[in-house]
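I hope you will forgive my troubling you with a question about protein structure. I am sending you one protein, given as its amino acid sequence and as whole-number tokens for its backbone shapes. Thank you for your consideration; the sequence and its tokens are set out here:
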Amino acid sequence: MKLHHILAFFLLPLFLCGGCPDATGFPRDRIDGPIYSFQPLGWPSSTEGGTSGEWLEIRTSPIFSPRPRCRVHMDGPGRLFYPKKNDDPDFPPVWTPFEEIADNYFHNGLLLLYVPPPNDEVPQEGIDVTIFCEVLDPYKSEETWVRSPDYKIRIHHRDKPMDFYIRPNSGRPGYSNYGPDNSFSDETVAPGEIYERFMVKATPAPFEDMQFKSGLVRPSGYSGDLGILEADRFDAHIFTYTAPDVSQPVDIVARFSIYDPWAKETRLRELTFHVVPK
């Protein structure tokens, strides 16, 4: 499971309103006049090698409907992706390499995901990537491509592992105290009680498959029900645990593992549920 796929599900509606590989029109009033400026919106100044990527947006002024043709240029390592809407609304979009739609991309500038190269390919001193776009001006009688300024992103080499930890339900006292150096590790629940929406955090999220796994560990000598550990429908890193019906106290461990490409090893975190009859 790739974390950026999960995040993209929530960003997709905004993304699809801003640009797509067709000329179906922009959902706002048309503004007459030629292109006279470009503006980067939320442009990241830097990122790290191997991470899940950064959203890039350059917007023309004015905004046109239907959207004009756009050409995107990148000088430096990394890749650009466009999220193609999934036919199943319960799943995030399918990531399409931008080069597959580059000849048929319509947008008032650009809105794409930039994915930096793997960390091993980034030198210790870092490297710069330059991106710009050209938009076909719809108010010129002859074919006229208007070029944006160059926009740069600095790619840094990451020298430390990812932060991997568990955070409790946000209603728990001291919620904000849990983090990379203080992972949430135990909770007392009653038989049949539901403990909702605790989160397994991994930052930064790598673009490659994190090999994220979760499960319940059976205590030694215990043969009863373990309860149910469920991932959220829309975010596979948010969980709910339903405790089993037991007559004697038992400790049930929820175990989570992930591959950390910066540490080059599998990392583990555990959350012990102390199931105690009232």
About this structure: The mean pLDDT is 86.
